[in-house]
Write a structure and sequence with these properties.
Layout (H helix, E strand, L loop, with lengths): L6 H9 L1 H9 L1 H7 L5 H25 L4 H6 L4 H13 L11 H16 L4 H10 L1 H11 L18 H14 L4 H25 L7
Bound molecules: protoporphyrin IX containing FE.
The site of protoporphyrin IX containing FE has 17 residues, from helix 1, helix 2, helix 3, helix 8 and helix 9.
Length: about 210
């Protein structure tokens, strides 16, 4: 069965509503959005996001010629890799030297496996990272005055174009006509990516501070 034109994005949103609420409630995210995260922890978080985006972008680039929907839907998400690299450089960190946390290693391994077994499901991961730009703008506003360096390029890549860019992304996904099985696998990938980001948040800033 092929979904109606709006279906895949509605499905992804509906299926990940709970993981999204969970992500928002994480201590790391709530401290970020309140502008209270120490700069050092923020820089460590950027480092892990750099590794995640770099791994995903590398696999999308590798597969896009053979899998047309990847090419039609994903435009230039490599932009996030470069923005992260630049933000890290403002903290004096070389992205290529960042060591992955255990959760980041698991995420990278899954990206790798999915890329080999089911390349279109990379779009489930990409949905989560691209969609997170919606909330990242709020985080950028919360952080911009508190940081000593303007390392918020990653969080606000599109400026006032954020909504139209997201709307166009939604339209491209909905127009691709994925079948139900592919949609289900993408949803599984999206849930998995939310889980990895939650685990990464927990590793960087535990939910409960132990005595
Ligand atoms: C403090 C943390 C966060 C806040 C305040 C926040 C806020 C938002 C907001 C306002 C939207 C737009 C909702 C809409 O217009 O319908 C959104 C969408 C989204 N966010 Fe977040 N978010 C946060 C964390 C995250 C995280 C950590 C991720 C994943 C890594 C994430 C992934 C997404 C996705 C995938 C969407 C698109 C939903 C859709 O329309 O399909 N968010 N977020």
């Amino acid at each position: 069965m092929t979904y109606q034109s709006t279906r895949i994005m509605d499905l992804l949103k509906e299926a990940t509503a709970e993981p999204h609420r969970d992500a928002e409630r994480r201590r790391l995210q709530s401290e970020l959005v309140r502008g209270r995260l120490p700069a050092e922890t923020y820089a460590r978080w950027l480092g892990q996001m750099f590794l995640l985006h770099r791994a995903l972008w590398k696999e999308i680039e590798r597969r896009r010629a053979e899998h047309p929907p990847l090419d039609e839907i994903v435009r230039d998400e490599g932009l996030h890799v470069e923005n992260l690299r630049a933000d890290l450089a403002l903290f004096g960190i070389d992205g290529d030297e960042v060591a992955p946390l255990a959760s980041t290693q698991r995420a990278i391994r899954s990206i790798d496996l999915t890329s080999r077994a089911d390349p279109l499901s990379l779009l489930g991961y990409n949905y989560v990272l691209e969609g997170s730009m919606n909330g990242n703008r709020f985080i950028a506003r919360a952080l911009e005055n508190g940081l000593e360096v303007p390392a918020i390029t990653y969080l606000d890549p599109y400026g006032d174009e954020q909504r139209p860019v997201w709307q166009e992304y939604r339209e491209r996904m909905n127009a691709a006509g994925f079948d139900e099985a592919q949609g289900d696998r993408m949803v599984a990938g999206a849930k998995e990516m939310f889980r990895f980001v939650a685990e990464m948040s927990e590793e960087l800033l535990p939910e409960t501070v132990r005595a």
